[in-house]
Specification:
Shape: globular
Strand content: 15-25%
Number of helices: 20
Helix content: 10-25%
CATH superfamily of the largest domain: Peptidase S8/S53 domain
Number of strands: 38
Radius of gyration: 26 Å
Oligomer: single chain
Length: 779
């Protein structure tokens, strides 16, 4: 047992209340009052007006609270956070009626509940990205390019600082603009920060106000990561190169490196385990805690913020979205914010993190597989994939059974083949290979159920929407996973044979798999439900089967009964895609320190590719060609983004007007929304989306020359079906760097759409740079 886990358990020897901070004791006392309807609300007030001290800001917040409370003491006791740096607002324990009164008060933008609706959404991925751009390896020039010492702020589940990915050998002291701290707590002290991880904080007040005191036998009340998610994303973004890394005894062996190994890391732990029998399986993150982290991160001096977190279910409007509010204040100060798109695909309109002042990232595959073929008793071989270190005897055939034929009595028919907990009959399963279907429940938990029932191995069959996409799992027993077509073939064999058998071949790592990248089926899709005139997601990046550092306090499956511990783990999700874009943003920030956050986002978007490694259009896991509602502008190309030629810029005021026009939110009390609609297409964004095109629509855009001093750009257009696209002028002439040119794009429907959305693009090129912008519209 590690000394850190041992120390965590020893904490439980002390009375719990002695471990709680005074503020939380106040929250406990408040929750014990007769009114049991109080919960944490975020009260957002926009920007701070004038120069005020922290005490003056706190007094303002208390005064506002006093307008709905019965006494000064009650107002003081109710406050959870007072946001004092860049965000003006607070979080407090309020009743629904108190929140309603505050929301109608002059100067209050919004008051919304903080209820844990947010959830957390490599050796090969960076090498694959570079190969796609014509490079054979992650070359030293990539590391040597930086001109500015960049700090990445990671809002996630914390960090495991002992990981070799976070060593600081040869690194200089933090840059002068760093103003953060290394906050101490359970199994974490100031010595755990170094020249790589230069700061760490944690935010748990809103979580504890909702769930009660953190269970410190299962989670660290400190920046230390008990989950693994935060450590994985941090090392993907900025881990130092570590040679000889592999997962689970040899899979994906190579040199692990983040995309920005030169960058510093500042950790802001905002996600915590959901109480329950297996708390590490799912984490939750509260708006109030998120906003406190954003407020500190901006004040601390970070340059880029990475947020692999998003809303569950219907997305909130910008004024009621903690991530959107925090990102807006970060963007105003030039900080690039990268966010995950969500894991609710392949259904449309599932994308989250929808604001234009952030980069929203979809997930794709890389060119690596972990092949583990299944040889059926009839001689047919079916390809599977796995990273479980356990294996059957390859020379022995085992009886093969479908889980639906081995369930205990009372199991509902619609889930009978899905190997849900306590669903399998041990008498029918013992010693056999069990075929389970994806569907309800966690994939790794299905393997645990097969093991509980005495099965020899698991074959996990994809559902049709998942197609050929196989997120590999470190199952707790031997096994492999197969595509939906292979699962159908497997079931046909079982049903047609009186004595079905199978052998499972141990897995091996295979490189240069094609086509790649493929957009992951789980990656959330557009259109944008809050602002239909904005295309989301923005870009795609590797997020399927990504190897990165892991927490020493968490098993590779996160299952409570899995006692294994690994230093590196393979994980999937748009959470893994997001830090890839974070790293690219850090690279651009280091090379172009004077570029705005909008310019950096533009460079990443306009240089993205819509083709795979074979030069064909991007597809999904089923092999179907997918479009811009799935991947935005395309798949990232970091080297191209360094020199984009032209960029689309935007300001804080532009974002405020966009929110007014597209979501009806007035995000800053000092900047009134126009009485009449302004222009829903006015934001100078690198893509064009039209929620509904009733009549000809002219959209104005402005580009800034950041390439050659003298350049001539010509436009080319790919028209959406049954739509005429006219760009005026068709030629842009630049005499110097920094010069701006305006043009218009007019869209006109010339026929009836065959589908809901049609897609096209327009591209500016000077023969060297290719600056592409997608067009998506609905008629």
């Amino acid at each position: 047992m590690s000394k850190f886990v041992q120390r965590k358990k020893n904490n439980m020897k002390f009375p719990l209340l002695l471990l709680l901070p005074p503020l939380f004791l106040l929250i406990l006392s408040c929750s014990a009052l007769p009114d049991q309807q109080r919960k944490v609300y975020v009260v957002y007030l926009g920007e701070h007006k004038g120069l005020k001290t922290s005490e003056e800001i706190l007094d303002d917040h208390h005064s506002l609270l006093l307008s709905v409370k019965n006494s000064k003491e009650e107002a003081l006791d109710s406050i959870v956070y007072s946001y004092k740096h860049t965000i003006n607002g607070f979080a407090a324990l309020l009743t629904e009626e108190e929140a309603r009164k505050l929301s109608n008060t002059e100067g209050v933008v919004s008051a919304f509940p903080s209820e844990g609706r947010l959830t957390p959404h490599t050796t090969r991925s960076w090498q694959f990205i570079m190969q796609e751009e014509g490079f054979k390896v992650l070359d030293s020039d990539w590391v040597q390019k930086p001109k500015k010492d960049v700090i990445i702020g990671m809002l996630d589940s914390g960090i495991w600082p002992e990981s070799e990915s976070f060593n600081d050998r040869g690194m200089s002291p933090p840059p002068k603009h760093w103003r953060g701290v290394c906050q101490e707590g359970d199994a974490f002290n100031s010595s755990h920060c170094n020249m790589k991880v230069i700061g760490a904080r944690f935010y748990v007040k809103a979580y504890e106000a909702y769930h009660g005191a953190l269970n410190r036998s299962t989670a660290f009340r400190s920046p230390r990561d008990n989950d693994g998610h935060g450590t994985h994303t941090a090392s993907t973004a900025a881990g130092r190169p570590v040679a000889g890394v592999s997962a689970l005894g040899g899979f994906a062996r190579g040199t692990a490196s983040g995309g920005a190994p030169f960058a510093r890391l500042a950790v802001y732990k905002v996600c915590w385990p959901i109480p329950g029998p297996n708390p590490n399986l799912e984490n939750t993150c509260f708006d109030a805690d998120m906003l406190a982290a954003f407020d500190d991160a901006v004040a601390d001096g970070v340059d880029v913020i990475s947020v692999s977190i998003g809303a569950v279910g219907a997305p909130p409007t910008f004024a009621h979205d903690g991530i959107a509010i925090g990102a807006l204040h970060a963007a105003r100060r030039g900080i690039v914010v990268s966010c995950s798109a969500g894991n609710s695909g392949p259904m449309p309109s599932t994308v989250t993190n929808l604001a234009p002042w952030m980069i929203t990232v979809a997930a794709s595959s890389i060119d690596r597989a972990f092949d583990s073929p299944v040889l059926l008793g009839n001689g047919v071989s079916i390809m599977g994939q796995t990273v479980t270190p356990y294996a059957l005897k390859s020379s022995v055939s085992y009886p093969l059974i479908f889980a639906g034929d081995a369930v205990v009595q009372g199991t509902p028919a619609n889930v009978s083949g899905q190997c849900l907990p306590n669903s399998l009959d041990a008498k029918k399963v013992k010693g056999k290979i069990v075929t389970c279907l994806r569907g309800a429940g966690l994939r790794v938990a299905k393997g645990l159920e097969v093991k509980r029932a005495g099965g020899a191995a698991i074959i996990l069959g994809n559902s049709v929407p998942n197609g050929n996409e196989i997120p590999v799992d470190a199952h707790v027993l031997a096994g492999t996973a197969v595509s939906s077509d292979s699962a159908i073939a497997l079931l046909k064999y079982i049903n047609s044979s009186s004595n079905p058998t199978a052998k499972i071949t141990p897995a091996r790592t295979v490189l240069h798999v094609s086509p790649a990248p493929v957009i992951a089926s789980f990656s959330s899709r557009g259109p944008n439900r809050i602002a239909p005139n904005l295309l989301k997601p923005d870009v795609a990046a590797p997020g399927l089967n990504i190897l990165a550092a892991w927490s020493g306090s968490s098993s590779p499956t996160k299952l409570e009964d899995d006692r294994r511990r690994v230093k590196y783990n393979i994980y999937s999700g748009t959470s893994m895609a997001c830090p890839h874009v974070t790293a690219v943003a850090a690279l651009l920030k280091s090379v172009h320190p004077k570029w705005s956050e909008a310019a950096i986002r533009s460079a990443i978007m306009t240089t993205a590719t819509t083709e795979d490694s074979l030069g064909k259009p991007l597809t999904d896991a089923s092999g179907q060609v997918v479009g811009q509602l799935v991947y935005g502008s395309g798949h990232i190309r970091p080297e191209h983004a360094i020199d984009p030629g032209l960029v689309y810029d935007a300001s804080y005021e532009d974002y405020l007007l966009f929110a007014c026009d597209n979501s009806g939110d007035q995000l800053d009390p000092a900047v009134r929304c126009p009485r009449n609609m302004h222009d829903p297409f006015a934001l100078n964004y690198p893509s064009i989306a039209v929620g509904t095109l009733y009549a000809p629509q002219t959209i104005t855009r402005t580009v800034t020359n950041v390439g050659n001093g003298s350049a001539v750009y010509h436009v080319s257009v790919v028209e959406p079906k049954d739509v005429t696209v006219k760009v005026v002028p068709t030629v842009l002439k630049f005499e110097k760097i920094g010069q701006k040119k305006r043009f218009t794009v007019t869209l006109s429907v010339r026929g009836r759409f065959d589908v809901d959305y049609e897609e096209g693009s327009y591209t500016w090129s000077d023969g060297i740079h290719v600056v592409r912008s997608p067009i998506v519209l609905k008629s």
